[in-house]
Write a structure and sequence with these properties.
This protein is 46% helix and 15% strand. The protein is an alpha/beta fold. Bound molecules: nicotinamide-adenine-dinucleotide (NAD).
Length: 251
């Protein structure tokens, strides 16, 4: 029987109740990983857990808010209780409200930075002691093309996603001596609810036409790169940002 590429691994995927995180959770489960779904939307987290178990995988789910340290600690405690170990953290949960800077309330700025950037820090911090004890592990965090190109009416989002890259390179340096890799995955515009929060279908479609591979991304397009970064095949890759965006940004 063919072994999955993530057999016997345990992965926490934040924001896995829908969109890209859901696709990553289902895809990693197909490769043999046990998946712990942490999402602020409890009903969606429970549904994805059921989807994974229905396809023969192992999954746990918890209503978690990655911007709250106590909630993050509970997420790690419950995941450990359920699966006894953690090998992979996918920092996927994120939000993208929009306001021009001159109208943006500090509360909105703090909420976006608090979720996207501080949430990535808190989840990583909570998982690191367990990875250090094992002397192995993978942290994969989702950034965005907006980190490089800016986001009109989304300065907080672009800043949070640029911050994730600097944070991840720093953590990669700290954890490299311990056999733990830290990488960043960068989607371009992807067919989920997120772009629909601030763009019309027409705007989304026309962006797809400008992408060299001729379409916007599908959540499934991020699954292969995540599995690769989490697998033994990527053991010598750390501190990198992998762009999976149909060629939308190249360098
Ligand atoms: N869709 C795109 O075009 C696109 C492009 C580039 C990057 N990304 C990034 O990819 C990731 C996934 O995006 P998506 O398109 O699937 O978004 P989405 O809005 O469909 O899903 C985000 C998920 O995160 C969860 N979440 C939000 N705040 C949370 C919190 N505080 N704690 C726990 N869970 C929380 C939501 O409940 C939801 O399930 C995000 O980090 C996003 O910024 C998306």
């Amino acid at each position: 029987m063919k072994m999955g590429r993530l057999e016997n691994r345990v992965a926490i995927v934040t924001g896995a109740g829908q969109g890209i995180g859901r696709a990553i959770a289902l895809g990693m489960a197909r490769e043999g990983a046990s998946i712990f779904i942490a999402d602020i939307n409890a009903a969606n987290a429970a549904t994805v857990k059921q989807e994974i178990t229905a396809q023969g995988g192992r999954a746990g789910a918890l209503c978690s808010d990655i911007s709250e340290e106590q909630s993050v600690r509970a997420m790690v405690d419950v995941a450990l209780k359920e699966f006894q170990r953690i090998d992979i953290l996918v920092n996927n949960a994120g939000m993208f409200p929009t306001s021009p800077v001159e109208e943006m309330q500090e509360e909105e700025w703090d909420r976006v930075i608090g979720t996207n950037l501080v949430g990535t820090f808190l989840c990583s911090k909570a998982v690191v002691p367990h990875l250090l004890a094992q002397r192995s592990g993978r942290i994969i965090s989702l950034t965005s093309g907006r980190a490089f190109q800016g986001a009109k009416n989304g300065a907080h989002y672009a800043a949070s996603k640029a911050g994730i890259i600097g944070f991840s390179k720093s953590l990669a340096l700290e954890l490299a001596p311990h056999g733990i890799t830290v990488n960043v995955l960068c989607p371009g515009i992807t067919d989920t609810s997120q772009p629909r929060g601030h763009q019309t279908e027409e705007q989304i479609y026309s962006q797809g036409q400008r992408i060299p591979l001729g379409r916007i991304g599908q959540p499934e397009d991020l699954v292969g790169p995540t599995i690769f970064l989490a697998s033994d095949a990527a053991r010598f890759i750390t501190g990198q940002t992998i762009l999976a965006n149909g060629g939308g940004i190249m360098w």
